[in-house]
């Protein structure tokens, strides 16, 4: 005899609840695209960066790092240089120093890692302790300041570094290369300029046997980057004041020897007057050559066709100015003429 099973209203309600639950589970699986329920993970760090101050293979380096937290509360941070186990594989110094000064400028982080920080290395990991609880969604930075905080592997290539703050972590990548240095070459060309303020120099009055007469003077302005200084030389075409009409020369005093003119006795000379050199800018010390350093009107030395050094400096110059004057006196018998003339050549050079 067969028995007919009859569902009670309560049983139908239970079946319908189970069916609804299965339908909801099907929707969850479909929405995740997997056959498994989603797993809840710890928070992730973002914007993590690890900067080696020396990327050379086998080189030692300071390390700057930064990251942005996902969650709040972390009180420790670590950097794990994956695979760095010593020797050619790279190593982490057991003794570490840590600071935060300047790290925001280097990394772009908005805050320094807070707390009384201490760092130590073990195997391939640097651990930072003494961290004050971190805030969520905040970028932090610090620097392992020892010059040998890490020693890079001797093999070039990319390596992973795991950055962990509390239970949050992420992995970033660094590159070890053969040479991270760029040699910059430049040339500063030698420079020397000299300019005369005029190409004529006239005696202030007619020459006389009763007084010494001087010219207005000309100036030579010198600019040079010659580290060892500069020189100014002079030469005289006539070795004196020459009158073509009279075929007569008022002779220069002995060239290269300091002398003073005597009224009534013919003489002609060139001089750098006292205070006649100004250095301007630059590092040099200027001076007039002894023979041509004038102690006053009528004191100096003659010039001839040989280049005679008038002045010099021991270093560079920017706007150094040398004043050069001529002095003359005549005898009562010096032939009269209005065409007495002389041509003096002034040249200069730097000592590079």
Q: Count all strands and give the number.
A: 27
Catalogue the unreliable spans: 1-42
Termini gap: 128 Å
Number of helices, counting only DSSP H or I runs of 4 residues or more: 2
How does the helix and strand content classify structurally? mainly beta
Largest sheet: 6 strands, antiparallel
Number of structural units classed as domains: 2
Topology as a string of helices (H) and strands (E) = HEEEEEEHEEEEEEEEEEEEEEEEEEEEE
Q: Using the CA coordinates, give the radius of gyration.
A: 45 Å
Proportion of residues in β-strands: 35-45%
List keywords for this structure.
Immunoglobulin-like, mainly beta, 39% strand, 27 strands, 2 domains, five-stranded mixed beta sheet, six-stranded antiparallel beta sheet, 8% helix, disordered N terminus, 352 residues
Could you walk me through the main structural features you see in this protein, from its secondary elements to its overall organization?
This protein is 8% helix and 39% strand. The protein has helices at 9-32, 103-107, and strands spanning 46-52, 60-61, 63-68, 77-81, 91-92, 98-99, 111-112, 115-122, 125-131, 139-144, 150-151, 157-165, 168-176, 192-196, 213-214, 218-224, 230-236, 240-243, 248-251, 259-260, 267-271, 277-278, 286-288, 299-300, 308-313, 317-329, 344-350. The strands form seven sheets. Strands 14, 15, 16, 21, 22 and 26 form a six-stranded antiparallel β-sheet that branches. Strands 1, 3, 6, 7 and 10 form a five-stranded mixed β-sheet that branches. Strands 8-9-4-12-13 form a five-stranded antiparallel β-sheet, with no helix packed on it. The radius of gyration is 45 Å and the shape is rod-shaped.
């Amino acid at each position: 005899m067969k028995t007919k099973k009859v569902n009670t209203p309560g049983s139908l309600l239970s079946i319908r609840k189970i069916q609804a639950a299965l339908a909801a589970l099907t929707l969850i699986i479909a929405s995740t695209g997997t056959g498994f329920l989603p797993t809840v993970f710890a928070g992730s760090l973002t914007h993590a960066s690890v900067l080696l101050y020396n990327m050379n293979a086998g080189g030692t380096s300071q390390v700057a790092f930064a990251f942005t937290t996902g969650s709040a509360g972390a009180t420790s941070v670590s950097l794990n240089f994956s695979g760095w186990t010593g020797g050619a594989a790279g190593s982490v110094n057991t003794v570490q120093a840590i600071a935060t000064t300047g790290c925001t400028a280097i990394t772009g982080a908005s805050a320094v890692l807070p707390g009384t920080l201490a760092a130590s290395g073990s195997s391939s990991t640097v651990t930072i302790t003494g961290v004050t609880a971190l805030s969520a969604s905040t970028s932090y930075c610090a620097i392992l300041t020892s010059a040998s905080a890490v020693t890079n592997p001797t093999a070039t290539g990319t390596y992973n570094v795991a950055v962990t703050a509390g239970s949050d972590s992420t992995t970033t990548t660094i590159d070890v290369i053969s040479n991270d240095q760029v040699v910059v070459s430049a040339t500063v060309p030698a420079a020397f300029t000299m300019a005369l303020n005029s190409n004529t120099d006239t005696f202030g009055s007619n020459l006389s046997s009763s007084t010494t007469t001087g010219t207005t003077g000309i100036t030579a302005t010198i600019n040079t980057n010659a580290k060892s200084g500069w020189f100014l030389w002079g030469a005289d075409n006539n070795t004196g004041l020459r009158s073509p009409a009279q075929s007569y020369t008022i002779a220069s005093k002995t060239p290269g020897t300091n002398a003073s003119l005597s009224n009534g006795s013919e003489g002609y000379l060139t001089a750098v007057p006292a205070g006649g050199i100004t250095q301007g800018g630059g590092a040099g010390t200027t001076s007039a050559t002894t023979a041509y350093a004038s102690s006053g009107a009528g004191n100096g030395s003659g010039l001839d066709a040989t280049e005679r050094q008038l002045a010099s400096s021991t270093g560079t110059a920017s706007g150094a100015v040398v004043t050069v004057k001529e002095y003359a006196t005549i005898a009562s018998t010096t032939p009269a003429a209005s065409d007495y003339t002389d041509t003096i050549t002034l040249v200069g050079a730097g000592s590079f």
